[in-house]
């Protein structure tokens, strides 16, 4: 089957941001009186929109995070991006292969448009994705695991969901893609394979990805 659109998650798939982001998230939540380890941050928040962090903290503690939580967190993460962020190893080769094969691709991320733009600028991936091919949970009412973001991306790109394949590294993202009626391949670099069980195929190295897409 040749797909008409490849939809990439961003964090952990295109840019190697999950270790940086979750290290800072765990530290900030702990600072605010909600002790969180790096491992717990990965487990609970990886692949989720910001509203999920607020919702889970409120559900678990009965306390709301500060009104400026998102702004402070993003400022810390963006500063870390400027110093340390790299593209995921091998992903540029995948993008080159897709371009050579004439397969369109786009980004559908739980992160904000600003977060995506900063990450792509720092890593040089901005040459691969213009604004018309970047979609954020900010664009829809519900983030992953709801299918809304992936359906929105497919609609904007003019492709039927069943002709799309999604590249994801989080359980929430895999759930969202399956709910959208799309094929999904799961990247196991940071996520145990069993947590991505809904994916059609699993891969642990970007060198394995291109043959799954074209």
From TrEMBL:
SUPFAM superfamilies: HAD-like
Cofactor: Mg(2+)
Pfam families reported for this sequence: Hydrolase
UniProtKB keywords: Hydrolase, Magnesium, Metal-binding
Tree of life domain: Bacteria
Example GO molecular function: metal ion binding
Family: Belongs to the HAD-like hydrolase superfamily. CbbY/CbbZ/Gph/YieH family.
Name used for this protein in its record: HAD family hydrolase
Protein source organism: Streptomyces galbus
């Amino acid at each position: 089957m040749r797909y008409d659109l490849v939809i990439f998650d961003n964090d952990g798939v295109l840019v190697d941001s999950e270790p940086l982001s979750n290290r800072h998230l765990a530290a900030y939540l702990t600072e605010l009186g909600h002790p969180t380890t790096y491992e717990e941050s990965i487990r609970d928040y990886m692949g989720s929109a910001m509203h999920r962090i607020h919702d889970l903290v409120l559900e678990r503690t009965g306390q709301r995070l500060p009104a400026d939580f998102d702004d402070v967190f993003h400022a810390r993460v963006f500063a870390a991006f400027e110093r340390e962020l790299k593209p995921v190893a091998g992903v540029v080769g995948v993008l080159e292969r897709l371009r050579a094969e004439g397969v369109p691709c786009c980004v559908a991320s739980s992160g904000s448009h600003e977060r995506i733009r900063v990450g792509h600028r720092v890593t040089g991936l901005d040459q691969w994705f213009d604004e018309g091919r970047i979609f954020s949970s900010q664009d829809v009412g519900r983030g992953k695991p709801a299918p809304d973001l992936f359906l929105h991306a497919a609609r904007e790109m003019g492709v039927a969901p069943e002709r799309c394949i999604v590249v994801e590294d989080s359980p929430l993202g895999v759930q969202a893609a399956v709910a959208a009626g799309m094929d999904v391949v799961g990247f196991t670099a940071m996520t145990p394979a069993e947590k991505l069980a809904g994916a059609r195929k699993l891969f642990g190295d970007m060198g394995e990805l291109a043959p799954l897409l074209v």
